[in-house]
Design a protein that fits this description.
The complex is a heterodimer of chains A (353) and B (287). Chain A has 353 residues and is an all-alpha fold. In chain A, 77% of the residues lie in helices and 1% in strands. Chain A contains 14 helices and two strands. Helices cover 33% and strands 25% of the residues of chain B. Chain B has helices at 2-11, 15-18, 65-72, 95-98, 117-122, 137-150, 165-178, 195-211, 223-229, 247-250, 253-260, and strands spanning 25-32, 42-49, 54-58, 80-85, 88-89, 102-105, 183-187, 215-219, 232-237, 240-246, 262-269, 272-280.
């Protein structure tokens, strides 16, 4: 029983380290930009909104402009990136466990394409309005994602055996149909082509506190569901039948997992566009660090995904100002080599053993 | 065919039928024919498995043995007939409740996860825990005991996927033991084991059954092992129950020849029968 406590402390230490890193990254990302704010000032401004803090004393001597920049512009963007990154990574853990496939990704459910299709309709037909801070594009994207989710479940029910593969196949079919539809929309609306394409690449430039609140409201219950299902997902790695023989309510687990990941992905994509790779790579990195237990993976992926996304977004807006690089491109460019490096290191370790 | 009938009457009416329906596993007129199948996989099978026995489930490939076990575990929901566990339909059990009654050692595990042997065995404690409950000291003790009994304790830090077929099979048996159920179903548990481990595992199960508190249903193809370890046997052929009862009654050379299409020679040694397949019988199974 010697290694077990050590393993647990690896998890605690990794988790603690990531929490600390997340706090630093949030403050740092809020500090950098076209107007640079000193790190300490940024920390004070962020901390001033926490409860039980003496605001006046903390904010003494900090220019009003800096307060506005950080509080109204940068912090919502940073937090939104963190929520989306963490949410996508946690959803990735659940997807990989559910499909027993290390390449499973929330995108295979077709939800991202549904969101993109909704956004593309809003953009192509010039539907632009804002109700209580909620833009029409965001609204259309979220509704598109939810409708696609319902469609995929329905098709999986009618056309395939009710297995988990059925959902996968229905998702892929819907996804490719919707992608084709988006292509047509872009063809017929050449003048909107760029806008649609940019939306699909993903960006946090339209972040707002309302979006932060919305993402939090979806993320918290979804992550609670993931936590409840964590151990069931561990047992499901042995397949439906063995898991059931050990007492897992397989159908219930699957239903809750698919619905909660779908809602989380729908919300994420609707506020930020399609940002790939985070949901694939972060769970893998965490698995290499702390092993296959899903509850641990969910917690660490949440933190790791948030940190990774905040950093990528920071690069996207500061690398070549005043233009922004699509954040999705950065996640892939930085993520893929790092991922390959980790795989290579893992192989070296296995060879040494 | 007439020979089959005679044997069936001879073999049935034994102790298997006389147990009370309230305890034990009771299969009632079970018929299973999936939509795509031309003939039923199980045809009107009725038999009772009494507690406190090691029962062999025999029959050629495709005779419905695994399908029958899957009904016990409620992995197949069957519209015709029922399987009662301690008097209650297996479909009516909550998953956790059922898995406190029956554990299962599958023929092949598809487990392709990076969990260690110890973590895999500890998974068997799932039905005894609430959602957020961790592994208790008692769980660890039970898992350790199970791992030591089947000889995988030394492998406990290894990844399940890195194990050989035999080591995997023993890990799954340890997992079933750690589930501490009154019933264990094993589907060809010894197919990947060397002879020493085969005897080791079957000795262990047999001992637990004799000590009381455990009942075993095991799919096996080696008649000599059945003769040595199982006191009860059930014989299936093409989804039909052909014989059930004491092992001696079911393991009749002429009945075996009829079911398997292979002629057997039987030799008695130290009061135990040994079966030798001699040659293919009159009916060519491959046609």
């Amino acid at each position: 029983m010697k290694k077990e406590p050590l393993k647990r402390s690896t998890f605690t230490m990794t988790g603690g380290g990531l929490v600390l890193l997340l706090v630093i990254v949030v403050i740092w990302a809020s500090a950098v930009g076209s107007v640079s704010v000193p790190f300490l000032q940024s920390a004070k401004i962020v901390a001033s909104k926490l409860p039980f803090v003496n605001k006046e004393k903390l904010l003494e001597g900090i220019p009003r402009a800096n307060k506005l920049i950080i509080w109204d512009i940068r912090l919502p963007r940073v937090l939104l990136a963190g929520l989306v990154g963490g949410g996508l990574a946690a959803a990735g853990v659940v997807m990989q466990a559910l499909f027993r496939n290390p390449l499973a990704d929330p995108q295979v459910l077709g939800i991202s394409s549904g969101a993109a299709f909704g956004a593309a309709i809003a953009i192509a037909f010039g539907i632009t309005f804002t109700v209580m801070g909620i833009s029409s594009i965001w609204m259309f994207a979220f509704v598109g994602a939810i409708l696609t989710m319902l469609l995929v479940f329905r098709i999986a029910r009618i056309a395939t055996s009710r297995s988990i593969t059925g959902i996968l196949l229905a998702g892929i079919a819907c996804s490719s149909m919707l992608t084709a539809a988006i292509t047509l929309l872009m063809m017929w609306n050449r003048q909107k082509l760029e806008q649609i394409y940019l939306w699909m690449l993903g960006s946090f430039s339209a972040a707002s506190w309302i979006k932060v609140g919305f993402m939090t409201a979806v993320l918290v219950p979804a992550v609670i569901c993931f936590g409840i299902l964590g151990r069931d997902l561990d047992l499901l790695s042995f397949g439906d039948q063995e898991a059931q023989s050990m007492g897992v309510a397989v159908k219930r687990t699957r239903t809750i997992a698919v619905i909660s990941t779908s809602l989380l992905v729908a919300a994420s994509v609707s506020v930020s566009g399609i940002i790939g790779f985070v949901s694939l790579i972060i769970p893998h990195i965490m698995r290499l660090l702390v092993g296959p237990k899903n509850r641990r993976l969910i917690v660490l992926s949440l933190l790791g995904g948030a940190i990774f996304m905040i950093l990528c977004d920071m690069v996207s807006r500061t690398a070549v100002p005043p233009t922004e690089i699509a954040v999705g491109a950065i996640t892939q460019v930085t993520g893929a080599p790092f991922f390959l490096y980790l795989l290579w290191k893992e192989r070296r370790r296995e060879e040494r053993e | 065919m007439s020979q089959e009938k005679t044997n069936m009457t001879a073999a049935s009416g034994g102790a298997l039928n006389q147990c009370s329906a309230a305890s034990g596993i009771d299969v009632r007129e079970l018929t299973y024919q999936p939509g795509s199948a031309r003939k039923p996989i199980l045809a009107d099978v009725s038999c009772s498995f009494a507690e406190g026995h090691m029962t062999a489930l025999l029959g050629p490939n495709g005779s419905g043995k695994t399908t029958l076990l899957k009904h016990f575990l409620s992995q197949i929901k069957c519209p015709e007939g029922a399987v009662l566990i301690d008097g209650k339909d297996t479909l009516d059990y909550a998953p956790k409740e059922r898995s406190r009654k029956i554990s299962w050692v599958p023929q092949n595990s598809i487990g392709e996860s990076a969990f260690t042997v110890e973590e895999v065995v500890l998974m068997a404690r799932y039905p005894y825990k609430s959602t957020w409950e961790g592994d208790s000291e008692e769980d660890r003790k039970i898992a350790e005991e199970a791992m030591r009994t089947v000889g995988v304790w030394e492998l406990r830090r290894r990844n399940f996927t890195s194990l050989s077929g035999g080591e995997r099979q023993r890990t799954l048996i340890a997992r079933a033991l750690a589930q501490t159920t009154p019933w264990i179903l094993l589907d060809e548990p010894t197919s990947n084991l060397d002879i020493r481990h085969q005897i080791g595992i079957l000795d262990l199960l047999n001992k637990r059954v004799r000590e009381g508190g455990l009942s075993v249903i095991v799919v096996m193809h080696d008649f000599n092992m059945v003769e040595r370890y199982c006191d009860r046997a059930v014989l299936l052929k093409e989804g039909n129950l052909v014989a059930k009862g004491e092992t001696d009654e079911v393991l009749q050379p002429n009945l075996m020849q009829d079911v398997y299409g292979v002629e057997f020679q039987v030799v008695e040694k130290d009061g135990r029968r040994l079966f030798f397949p001699v040659r293919e019988g009159p009916r060519n199974m491959l046609q």
